[in-house]
């Protein structure tokens, strides 16, 4: 699925990914392809992004929001630490 | 023809002014580059944030945060964003002109009882005072490269005013940074939050050309125009998410507005100062020419006098 992670200072990640693992205020979740539309508040922690080449990327967050759209795209806006 | 002395004096003062404007131009150019970078880098974030808000404003989750409540518009808060310092060419007057124009065609009554004025920037304060409006609150001295903490007081003020029903609508007049050459004055309606307005704003903030142009974003808003698909799982609960998200997004918008205005201010100042130093160097050229002519005239005159004297003696 397509993912964009944006902070105020820059675009932290943009591209095709396999999965996103992050902590939300309701607990840790992993978002895979074709997830149902979701809107959630991110808790402080690290977002783990696994891209299509199985490489892992980590983005630390202080707070933020995650949106998964029906079009198999997701986006995060985050405040960096 | 003026005397040599006066021309020389004028030449000297014009040169001095040229030097000053040149220096100001360089300073403004550096500031512009930096603030432009900050403004442009925060654009994807601002754009996504706007979209979030737009989507949310159309989701029916059975809970409406007070900030997104719709209510009849009676009272308006007008925020005029201008610069703190002068010498910015038409930057400030463009904002004020847009404001005048808006007021003139305004279908709603805008008088003292229904309108609150909030000034951002020293120049906006003095403009509104001159116009004879009472300024409810003024915010001055936002830094050149504002951070989000600096604009929080302004955003909080606008939010609390809306919640306390001091106003039902917030209009912000500010300058949007298009390019170093072009800045447009835009009116943004911060409250009430409506989908159409947000879409409009999002379209405005994407530059038409250059490295930040539409491609990456262009399609996003269109995919969401279908009214059917709005079924979100919202975790932990719609209330909890919206209570955090909505104020955050509002602050974001305000922050973005200030950033844009800042970048525009520096761009405008740079242009103004560039024009000024160009003019100064033109004048220097003219004056030098005049100075040389007048010097030559003096020499010729002296020569004729000498020869005339010599002839008279012989």
From TrEMBL, chain A:
Location within or outside the cell: Endomembrane system
Gene Ontology molecular function terms on file: proton-transporting ATP synthase activity, rotational mechanism
Taxonomic placement: Bacteria, Candidatus Ryaniibacteriota
Cross-referenced SUPFAM superfamilies: Epsilon subunit of F1F0-ATP synthase N-terminal domain
Listed Gene3D superfamilies: F0F1 ATP synthase delta/epsilon subunit, N-terminal (2.60.15.10)
Membrane topology per record: Peripheral membrane protein
Primary location class: membrane
Domain ATP synthase F1 complex delta/epsilon subunit N-terminal: 1-71
InterPro entries in the cross-refs: ATP_synth_F1_dsu/esu, ATP_synth_F1_dsu/esu_N, ATPsynth_dsu/esu_N
Transmembrane segments: none
Protein name: ATP synthase F1 complex delta/epsilon subunit N-terminal domain-containing protein
From TrEMBL, chain B:
Keyword annotations of the record: ATP synthesis, Cell membrane, CF(1), Hydrogen ion transport, Ion transport, Membrane, Transport
GO CC term (a single one): plasma membrane
Record InterPro entries: ATP_synth_F1_ATPase_gsu, ATP_synth_F1_gsu, ATP_synth_F1_gsu_CS
Coiled coil: none
Cross-referenced SUPFAM superfamilies: ATP synthase (F1-ATPase), gamma subunit
Topological relation to the membrane, as annotated: Peripheral membrane protein
Primary location: membrane
Protein's UniProt keywords contain Transport: yes
Localization per Swiss-Prot or TrEMBL: Cell membrane; Membrane
GO process terms (BP): proton motive force-driven plasma membrane ATP synthesis
One function term, GO molecular function aspect: proton-transporting ATP synthase activity, rotational mechanism
Name of one Pfam family that matches: ATP-synt
Domain of life: Bacteria
Residues in the signal sequence: none
Gene3D superfamilies, per the entry: 3.40.1380.10, ATP synthase, gamma subunit, helix hairpin domain (1.10.287.80)
Family: Belongs to the ATPase gamma chain family.
Quaternary context: F-type ATPases have 2 components, CF(1) - the catalytic core - and CF(0) - the membrane proton channel. CF(1) has five subunits: alpha(3), beta(3), gamma(1), delta(1), epsilon(1). CF(0) has three main subunits: a, b and c.
Annotated PANTHER family: ATP SYNTHASE GAMMA CHAIN (PTHR11693), ATP SYNTHASE SUBUNIT GAMMA, MITOCHONDRIAL (PTHR11693:SF22)
Function: Produces ATP from ADP in the presence of a proton gradient across the membrane. The gamma chain is believed to be important in regulating ATPase activity and the flow of protons through the CF(0) complex.
UniProt-recorded name of the protein: ATP synthase gamma chain
Species whose genome carries this gene: Candidatus Ryanbacteria bacterium RIFCSPHIGHO2_01_FULL_45_22
Lineage: Bacteria, Candidatus Ryaniibacteriota
Record gene name: atpG
């Amino acid at each position: 699925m397509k993912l964009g992670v944006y902070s105020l200072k820059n675009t932290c990640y943009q591209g095709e990914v396999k999965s996103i693992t992050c902590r939300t205020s309701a607990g840790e979740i992993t978002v895979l392809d074709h997830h149902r539309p979701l809107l959630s508040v991110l808790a402080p922690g690290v977002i783990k992004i696994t891209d299509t080449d199985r490489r892992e990327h980590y983005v630390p967050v202080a707070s933020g929001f995650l949106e998964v759209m029906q079009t198999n795209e997701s986006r995060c806006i985050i405040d960096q630490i | 023809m003026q005397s040599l002395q006066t021309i020389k004096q004028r030449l000297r003062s014009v040169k001095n002014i040229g030097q000053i404007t040149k220096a100001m131009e360089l300073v403004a150019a550096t500031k512009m580059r930096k603030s432009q970078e900050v403004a442009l880098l925060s654009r994807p974030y601002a754009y996504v944030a706007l979209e979030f808000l737009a989507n949310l404003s159309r989701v029916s989750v059975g809970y409406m945060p007070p900030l997104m409540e719709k209510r009849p518009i009676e009272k308006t808060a007008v925020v005029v964003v201008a610069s703190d310092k002068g010498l910015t060419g038409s930057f400030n007057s463009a904002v004020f002109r847009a404001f005048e124009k808006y007021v003139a065609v305004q279908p709603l009554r805008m008088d003292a009882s229904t309108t609150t004025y909030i000034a951002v920037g020293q120049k906006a304060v003095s403009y509104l005072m001159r116009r004879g409006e009472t300024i409810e609150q003024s915010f001055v001295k936002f830094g050149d490269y504002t951070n989000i903490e600096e604009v929080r007081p302004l955003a909080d003020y606008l939010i609390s005013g809306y919640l306390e029903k001091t106003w039902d609508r917030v209009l912000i007049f500010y300058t949007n940074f298009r390019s170093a050459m072009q800045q447009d004055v835009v009116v943004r309606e911060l409250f009430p939050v409506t989908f159409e307005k947000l879409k409009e704003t999002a379209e405005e903030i994407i530059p038409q050309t250059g490295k930040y142009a539409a491609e990456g974003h262009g399609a996003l808003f269109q995919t969401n125009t279908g009214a059917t698909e709005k079924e979100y799982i919202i975790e932990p609960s719609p209330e909890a998410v919206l209570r955090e998200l909505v104020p955050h997004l509002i602050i974001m918008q305000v922050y973005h507005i200030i950033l844009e205005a800042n970048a525009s201010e520096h761009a405008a100042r740079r242009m103004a100062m560039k024009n000024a130093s160009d003019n100064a160097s033109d004048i220097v050229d003219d004056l030098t020419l005049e100075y040389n002519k007048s010097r030559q005239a003096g020499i010729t005159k002296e020569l004729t006098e000498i020869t005339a004297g010599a002839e008279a003696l012989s």
